[in-house]
Specification:
The chain is mainly α and 431 residues long. It contains 17 helices and no strands.
Length: 431
């Protein structure tokens, strides 16, 4: 495959977009920390750690709820358009939203807009489909170009590129945030680069991204297409169980990671921009270890076993995070989650094997939207639990995530038993 062919693949879009996202994430964390500290100082004269943490977590709760609620209807519409053959649309339109929302953060940094302007930015992002539309569109393309046998590895390969880009971007982001001049305020360069990369990504996906016929129509011909669910109820039950396991795992991971960005900003960690960048980079290292885990273990274990191994890896690591009091302990906890990224792409791979190719988009967007709906409950719950336990055990929410992760392995184990019985039956029929 030539260099130009590689440039025109979906992996290039993922690479550029994730570099931009890594810059934005660090910039957002630092801007929110500084603005919340200034706001509580002005109100109280002097602010306590708890008051700053409550201000930050309240902001993130509203921000995350808006990010997860507003994309629901637009994402469904974009997924249906994608399944009708317009595979670029669920990717291009969300990138427009990314560009607009990142431009709002740049205005907050450079023009002194109030922090609440970011709520408007995240709404624009959501109305364009948000991450759930963008990532479901990416995974639909990957599913359509791959065979069932190599689909899990193909999806993990895209996740690897996503993680490596995030790793590089996060390592650089903390240093870039601190670069400023008399003309440009602190953070302007970092957020400006994020906006620029999203613009490049949008132009690339619009004019250069190559979609071949197989990725438009899927491997099955039109007269073979039988809709979202296969002709027997077995696939329906498997889909329901995979959704249940995926949702529980997303609750555990999403809730824990949302609180982690505030946990890093309080004592005893109290990180600066560089440390935030390094911490985010440690999170993206999990993409690398998860990819190699799939490459090695997939030779000997099933997809279901891979999912359970990944879930247990996260459960152990996030439990240890509850007792972190030093920076080195944070990295130890992160190292225990080395396979935590395996479950989601493998669940998507198993789901895609239950339906026809022309239904990949709507099935995968349904999974993403189920995560969004679940987050409408877990985001405020995790926030309130964290605020209530700040003076007791600040890391209690991480223990909660560990428990929910263990529960998520139950429906996945049931799927494993069902698939094993089906394979045995098919072998007997074949004989």
């Amino acid at each position: 495959m030539g260099l130009w062919s590689l440039v025109k693949r979906i992996e290039t879009v993922v690479l550029i977009a994730q570099l931009a996202s890594a810059f934005f994430d660090t910039g957002l964390q630092m801007v929110v920390k500084e603005r919340c500290a200034n706001a509580t100082d002005s109100i109280n004269g002097t602010s306590t750690v708890d008051s700053r943490q409550r201000a930050m977590t309240n902001f993130y709760m509203t921000y995350n709820l808006l990010a997860k609620f507003t994309p629901i209807i637009p994402a469904i519409i974009l997924a249906k358009i994608g399944d009708r053959g317009y595979r670029k649309i669920p990717i291009v339109i969300p990138l427009v939203g990314y560009l607009l929302s990142r431009a709002v953060l740049l205005s907050v940094v450079m023009l002194g807009w109030p922090l609440e302007a970011l709520y408007g930015g995240v709404v624009l992002h959501g109305l364009c489909g948000g991450f759930c539309s963008y990532w479901a569109g990416v995974m639909a393309l990957v599913s359509l170009r791959s065979t069932e046998d190599d689909r899990s590895v193909e999806m993990m390969r895209v996740e690897l590129i996503y993680g490596l880009a995030g790793l590089v971007g996060s390592l650089a982001s903390g240093h870039l945030f601190q670069l400023y001049t008399a003309t440009f305020k602190q953070g302007s360069l970092l957020v400006g680069l994020s906006v620029f990369f999203y613009l490049v990504c949008l132009l690339h996906s619009t004019f250069l991204l190559h979609i071949n016929r197989a990725q438009v129509t899927g491997p099955e011909s039109d007269n073979e297409n039988q809709g979202l669910i296969s002709h027997n109820s077995r696939s329906l039950v498997n889909i329901a169980l995979l959704f249940a396991g995926g949702i529980l795992y997303d609750v555990a991971v999403g809730g824990g990671m949302e609180i982690l960005v505030s946990f890093e900003m309080k004592e005893p960690l109290n990180w600066n921009a560089t440390q935030v960048g390094y911490g985010n980079a440690a999170g993206f290292m999990v993409f690398l270890t998860s990819f190699f885990g799939v490459m090695v273990m997939s030779r000997w274990v099933s997809d279901v076993s891979l999912i359970i191994i990944g879930m247990l890896s996260f459960a152990v690591g996030i439990y240890f995070m509850a007792f972190v009091t030093e920076t080195y302990m944070f990295y130890l906890a992160r190292s225990l989650t080395l396979f935590a990224l395996i479950p989601m792409p493998t669940i998507r791979s198993l789901l895609s094997k239950q339906v026809k190719g022309s239904s990949y988009g709507i099935l995968l967007i349904s999974l993403q939207l189920s995560f969004k709906v679940a987050s409408l409950a877990y985001t405020p719950i995790y926030t309130r639990v964290y605020q209530a336990t700040l003076d007791w055990i600040p890391g209690f929410v991480f223990t909660l995530s560990s428990i929910i992760t263990v529960l998520a392995t139950i429906p996945i184990s049931v799927v494993g038993c069902r698939l094993s019985k089906r394979n045995e039956y098919e072998r007997i029929q074949g004989d």
